[in-house]
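Support case: user asked for a sample of complex input and structure output to validate their parser. Sending the pair below.
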Amino acid sequence: MVESGGSGAVNLLSLSYFVFVPLVWVLTRLIRPVKGRQLLWLAASYFFYATWSLKFLCVLLVSSLVNYALGIYLRRSPSAGRLWVGIGFNVCLLAVFKYLPVWSAHLGPGHLPALLEHVILPVGVSFWTFEALSYLFDVYREEDLDPSLTEFCLYLAFWPTVLSGPVCRLPELLPQFRNAKPVWDDIAEGTRRIVLGLFMKTVLSQILGAGLRPGEGVDFGFNQIARGWTGLDVWILAIGFAFQMYFDFAGYSNIVIGTAQLFGIRLRENFRDPFLSTSPAEFWTRWHMSLSSWIRDYVFMPLATWKPQVWWRHASLVIAMMLFGFWHGADWTYIVWGVLQGMLLVGHRQFQQLERRTNLQLPVLVATYAGWAVTFSCMLLSWVVFRANDLSQAGAMFHALVNFSSYRHFVLPRNFVWMTIVISASYFVVAGLRKLAENSKQVPILARLGWALSPVLYSAAMLAIVIMSIHKAVFVYLQF
Amino acid sequence: MTEAILNDTIKAEAIKAGAIKEMTDYIAKELVRRPGVEVTPETPLVSSGLIDSFALVEIFVKLEKLTNRRIPAAKIQPKDMDSVALMFATAERIGKPRQ
Amino acid sequence: MVLTEVQTPKGIGGIPLVTPPIAVTPPTWLLVLKRGYVVVMSLLITVLVGNWLASISGQNNYTKAEERNERAAVVPMAGLSASDLAEGQAVLNPAEAPVTRTQLLYLGDSQVFSRPDAPPGALNTAQWVQILLSRQDNRAVRVLIGATPGMDVPEMLLRTVAASERQPRQDDVIVADISLAELRELGIRGEINSLATDPAVNSTLKSLLSANPDMGDAGKTLDAVLNPQGDKIVDKSLADRMEDTLQGKADGWSFFAERENLVALGLLRYAQWEHRLLHITSGSRVPTHAEPYRANLQMLELLMRFSQERNIHLLLFFGPVRDLEPNPDAPADLTRMHRDITSLCERYAVTCLDYSQVIPEASWADYSPNQRGAFAMMAGQHDFFHFKEEGHKALAEKLMSDAGAQILQWSNQAGPAQ
């Protein structure tokens, strides 16, 4: 698959973006009528998306117009048949751009029309297609939704979310498109989130992913070491990748949510301290929340309630998570990862049943920390499969994990090992400090002290962002 | 006639109240299982995180049994099931009586 | 100033239990001050600290100064004729070098050209090789330095393929200084990585790998180079030009312009602290892990196969090793390297020489007590990688004595470059 282009694009890490956003903000303040503002945002969104590719913009436009028409068609008679027409169109769109080129690469030349072998994946197609699907589902469920064409196009193309989400729902955005008015707190909080997001992406994720020197980093560990990892290397790579993904995608989410908040628009949260989860079920209410809730609402619930049997509910969980994996791409690693996640959720469910039947009551602290340790470890190991270049590499890495004699040394550079441990430990330290800070808000003097010292933190973050911006960073989730 | 309708209505309300109580007790004892947490017909369940999606499915199956209605799952969302009261209102709104 | 009423708890009969306080919205100027404080202070601290950091970034320029010294104009010295000086100088200015001679690409790490003790303008090994070859036949061979500090075998391969794709090619002959350090790591730095973006180089490497499917480890290492993730280079668009303009304007702020130096400075400070905390010295043992070693060996074998395919004359020698303990190179690792590479050279009929004991102890350099720059943390310690100026001459003379005639013979076979 040819990678989605974009070196000529306004991306969220470029200086152009930080000229583009204030410009649009100022113009928004100058335009009073709601319709005018919506048109401005739509024009800005299309301009933003067009800098990635005019061809991508054409695909987005076609998808917007067809889905809008499908919405009208469905609203006249919300039947399952008409809904399936809409689902079919969007799934075909995804298949053509996302899955067929990958399958054609696997099959070899000549098995598919040559045109399909050169298809480029429009950036964000997975995200705005899912938004379109959620709109059709909401219409089918007879939600009180009546967007204008401008509003619907804006919903799909809204520039903060068009690249990599969060996957939003029209019932949440439509009132805001009509009434949003930022107040000072929105601007302050939005700016704070943008700075935080930039720090997470350009500093933390970059250090973990690419390392500080050649021969370091998660990418090196997975891409350039053919085999021979020790057990410790695999754990470090698993931790490194988990946190790289988190800082990359949560960083992106912060930038996007912060940008929208500058305009008075509240988007769905995408992350909520996922590595503090004490069960797999809890993890999926904290990681990529916008997409996991989409899968829950539009795939799992309809599927699981189709049959009343308990075994079907478990199977639905595995199928839904498998589709979640498949959403990321057509590679076996994603599909196996999805199945693993489904099995973890089923396993957790079985454990809960066992607790109920045996009336098992562990002490709260033991249950919490044991649950955290098991959840964190399982998630880390599943990320190894997700990141591995193919299943055989994943297999080799798992083999290293159970080869206890290999735990005596590292193959990975020592610097990278230290960096990974420090950054991942810092996550937990910061989570603890945040909790303390929340509690300290009850004590006014501490809250004021925190406020007074906050410029030091912000400036340290901004300095680090500027220094690390020499590396050309790419958002990992742009590839999905 | 009017008296009959009234009696039927009172009986239906009583059955519904009984069903609501049975559902509330079921959720509190079997699904939430937290000693300090009180579950009432108005307690937010999904939005507060008291129950997860798997439990929601179990509630859905129980709801169909208690209301004796077939509820098209594709037509509902978790927010329609956020409290016991909302669940029963949803079942009445979009459910079809079982044959 | 606006007065607003606040809800208070009501007692029996709705009578307030306490006297309700009157909330006061602060005056505008106070509101502006409160709201502006964080923004203004953050920006102020950023600018002040940024400017300060930019001013100290020059501390990294020691590395740049070292690099400039290493490429400084040759200084006249006893025993060197004017044409010797010119030949030695020409090695440092490859762009000006005539291409009428056989091109000899000299590969290796900083051992090739670093003379820590010598003043700027002293000659390195490659320059001495050029001078000694030219004394025998000054029209025969042009030496080009392909060595870089910390070079490893993937980088050697990339350099070789890139040199081979030039018109005319720059590697009729390759002389490679092989050390254990080159076989420990698999990283490819940006400037060498970028060689693979050339379509001809990229295509040649891909063909080389597909024609040698048994070199899976080498293939894996090069995969990221040949198939980079992320954005492909496209024609400059409006957004590109806008971004370039903004970046140019941002470079007007010294802190922005000095980012790269600051990263290097940060890494240096980190390395210094790491050495101090973990008691690492220049003699601390450096492990040679099996996996990178195996991948590097495959890469070397690929280099040999490529050379055969392209009729490149290849000569390897085991670089000098300082005979002192503690030593970063473990004897067992050195023995393994000699055995494995000698065996490879026999298989591919590549000339392989052993110069590990060529440099006597007196000719090895030590880090200065006032060492600055990239090796500041080694101040006053033994240097296990670099030797004095006299060592470079001795090594070049040894190479000429063992292989000079062979190199000139290859040159005669090849004829002048087209």
